[in-house]
Description:
Layout: E1 4-6, H1 8-21, E2 27-33, E3 36-43, H2 57-70, E4 73-81, H3 90-94, E5 102-107, E6 115-122, E7 125-129, E8 131-133
Parallel strand pairs: 1-8, 4-5
Antiparallel strand pairs: 2-3, 2-4, 5-6, 6-7
Bound molecules: zinc ion.
Zinc ion binds at residues 79, 81, 88-89, 92, 105.
Amino acid sequence: MKKLVLPSTxxxxxxxxxxxxxxxxxxxxxxTKDGQITQVYRAYNIAxxxxxxxxxxxxxxxxxxxxxxxxxxxxxxxxxxPATEAQPSATDIRMAYYPEAYYLIISLARPEKALVRAFxxxxxxxxxxxxMIE
Length: 134
Ligand SMILES: [Zn+2]
């Protein structure tokens, strides 16, 4: 299994976003250049729900445009699970439109220790990737 590295500064950023947004889910995008993560983009969850997310299409467009201008690519899509495990929900699987992206889920189910897990979601199949935060 390929080792997937999430630098701790970016892990801290997405965990902070998840905590700020709780009890609602938050979402965003991680960009990459040459295999290195370059930036975390926060996006607005228009669902404003504690159990699901829908990334604001305007934010998504703005983020993809910015990435393109900088020569960056989509690395991953993150969202939070404020009260449940870091496991993709049936909706997460159904709405996973980017087979090339890593789907990161931040679980705040244990408030003392936020947990981040990474998945690929391909044609309804969920494959967990070993995520190293370092
Ligand atoms: Zn979810």
